[in-house]
Amino acid sequence: MKEQLKTILTNSKSYTLAVAAAMPADTYGFKPVDTVWNFGELLNHIGYGIYWWEENYIRGIETDWNPPASLTSKSKIATYLLDAFEMLEKTLAELSDRNEAIAGFHTTLDHITHHRGQATTYLRCCGITPPEYIY
C-alpha cells in the first residue's frame, strides 16, 4: 500500500507543479470572479494545506488553521509547493505500512486534487490548455 501511495504522491507532485508552471508569471493574479482566490493564492492554499493536513491528519498534531500571507511570485510559490511535497514524501518514507496515519494521506491528496482542479479551470479561463494529466 505504501508503494502505491508513493506513486500517487509522486504523480500529484509532478502534475501540480506542471499546472503551476503552465500559468505565466504575470497572470498569477488572475481570478475568474471577484469572490475567489487568484491563481497564486490558490496555489499557496494548496501548499499550506499540504503542511497543515500532514500535521493534523498524518502526524496527529492538532494545530490551528493559520495560513501565512500568500507569496506573490511564481518562483517563490513553485518553491513553496515543491518544499511541501518533499516534506510529505519524507513523512511517507518514515511511516510503517500499517500506520493508520497512511489514511491521512488520502484526505491530503483529495484536498490537493480538489484545488488543483480549480487551478486547471483558471488556466482554461486564460486560454491555456492544462498539462496532460499524469496517471
What does this structure look like?
This protein is mostly helical and 135 residues long. Helices cover 64% and strands 0% of the residues. The chain is built from four helices and no strands. α2 (39-58) packs parallel to α3. The mean pLDDT is 94.
Strand content: under 5%
Derived from helix and strand composition plus strand pairing, the structural class reads mainly alpha
> Poorly predicted ranges (pLDDT <50, ≥5 residues)?
none
> Distance between the terminal alpha carbons, to the nearest Å?
17 Å
- The sequence of SSEs as H and E is HHHH
Mean pLDDT: 94
- Principal-axis shape: globular
* Record field, number of beta strands: 0
Output the number of helix runs. 4
Helix content: 55-70%
Cα Rg: 15 Å
Mind summarizing the main beta sheet? Answer: none
Q: Which features characterize this protein?
A:
135 residues, mainly alpha, globular
Q: In brief, what are we looking at here?
A:
This protein has 135 residues and is mainly alpha-helical. It is 64% helix and 0% strand.
Topology:
Blueprint lengths: L1 H21 L16 H20 L15 H21 L7 H24 L10
Helix pairs in contact: 1-3, 1-4, 2-3, 2-4
